[in-house]
Specification:
Radius of gyration: 19 Å
Structural class: alpha/beta
Strand content: 15-25%
Helix content: 25-40%
Number of strands: 12
Oligomer: single chain
Shape: globular
Largest sheet: 6 strands, mixed
Order of helices and strands: EEHEHEHEHHHEEHEHEHEHHHEE
Number of helices: 12
């Protein structure tokens, strides 16, 4: 049994304390859930499960936010939901779990996606309750507590990335995202969100037009005095949600659904948890080996811009064409709503592949604990 993606939508990405900050994360999730089934043209009662990524599972995002979102959307009580956490890759992992479940025959139709409201649930809040998540045995093995910003500095040093190079990559992310937004490339994938005061948010808020290397050079580094990482070359704190609909081939045919893409290959990899951010490199290598494809077969690469050194080091190791890497900008410009980012990037990649008749696209992203997902999509014509 095969599995295909027949729908993909996302909210705009709101900046911290921006247009989406007054919306409960379950209600923000409900927006994309309803838009997804409405655009696909199927009834929510046909959905077997909702697999939802979320990192900060405390407060408003606690108690299985997936299930709360399903009910907030007005869907039948018969539709369940489960919330998963693979850190920044949570909603990418949601897709991979969903596809595997459909192929195994457990589900006919399942929604995968995720949410994060970082304005409402402060990053790291869960780690501040009930003691450290780093156990004594973990600390016996590693002599340093992982810190993503420090890890990004470690990557910049290991791959000899200068401050000017890192800032140039970051400025390019804003330039590409602005060009994509101006050309309307995000419009079809975005579902506008109406806020409690009646304001309609329909555009990504994080893009800083006119960002230059010269402007970025004036920002103070955060994690190392003579380092390279600062607020301008790291992903933005954001709010957002995204969702994809995965169904079996038979279900798609029976319900007259149009397949957009299929998962060709999905893998996960682990690496050094202290540097933490380098796992997209072995994950990509594993995905290419497992798929039987080469770098030259891939027409678009999406590598999450948690920090600029992550995709830059990845590119040095993998050898991908820079023009094919994050062609519409990335998290430095568009933002990084943790649990929703994987689905947001997958959604953009699907639309980009269909717009440009690209057969294969590869997405990978670094994750807490030194992990990474890598997913290869194949266009369905």
């Amino acid at each position: 049994m095969g599995a295909v993606i027949v729908g993909a939508v996302r909210t705009p990405v709101g900046k911290k304390n921006g247009g989406l900050s007054d919306i409960h994360p379950a209600d923000l999730s409900a927006v994309v859930l309803n838009a997804l089934v409405e655009r696909a043209g199927i009834s929510p009662e046909l959905i077997d499960d909702v697999i939802w990524g979320c990192v900060g599972q405390v407060g408003e995002q606690a108690n299985d936010v997936a299930r709360t979102a399903v009910l907030a959307a007005g869907w039948p009580e018969s539709v369940p939901g489960v919330t998963i956490d693979r850190q920044c890759g949570s909603s990418q992992q949601s897709l991979n779990f969903a596809v595997a479940s459909v192929i195994a025959g457990h589900y006919d139709a399942v929604v995968a996606g995720g949410v994060e409201s970082m304005s409402r649930i402060t990053i790291g809040l869960g780690s501040s309750v009930g003691g450290s998540p780093l156990s004594p045995k973990f600390m016996e093995r590693y002599d340093a507590a992982p810190n993503q910003g420090v890890g990004a500095e470690m990557m910049a040093e290991k791959w000899a990335l200068s401050r000017a190079e890192v800032d140039a990559f970051s400025a390019r992310s804003h330039e590409r995202a602005a060009a994509a937004q101006d050309a309307g490339l995000f419009d079809a994938q975005i579902v506008p969100v109406t806020t409690p005061d009646g304001t309609v948010v329909s555009k990504d808020e994080g893009i800083r037009r006119g960002t230059t290397v010269e402007k970025l050079a004036g920002l103070k580094t955060v994690f190392k005095e003579d380092g390279v990482i600062h607020a301008g070359n790291a992903s933005q704190i954001s709010d957002g949600a995204a969702a994809l609909l995965i169904v079996s081939d038979e279900f798609a045919e029976k319900h007259n659904l149009t397949p957009l893409a299929r998962i060709h290959t999905a893998v996960v990899a682990g690496a050094d948890p202290v540097m933490m951010l380098g796992a997209p490199i072995p994950a990509t290598e594993k995905a290419l080996e497992k798929s039987g494809l080469s770098v030259s077969d891939i027409g678009v690469f999406e590598v999450n811009e948690a920090f600029a050194p992550v995709p830059m080091a990845w590119q040095k190791e993998i050898g991908a064409d820079e023009a094919l890497l994050n062609p519409n900008g990335g998290a430095i410009a568009l933002g990084h709503p943790l649990g929703g980012s994987g689905a947001r990037i997958l959604t953009d990649m699907i639309y980009h592949m269909r717009r440009n008749d690209i057969r294969y696209g590869l997405q990978t992203m670094c994750e807490g604990g030194g992990q990474a997902n890598a997913t290869i999509l194949e266009l369905v014509k």
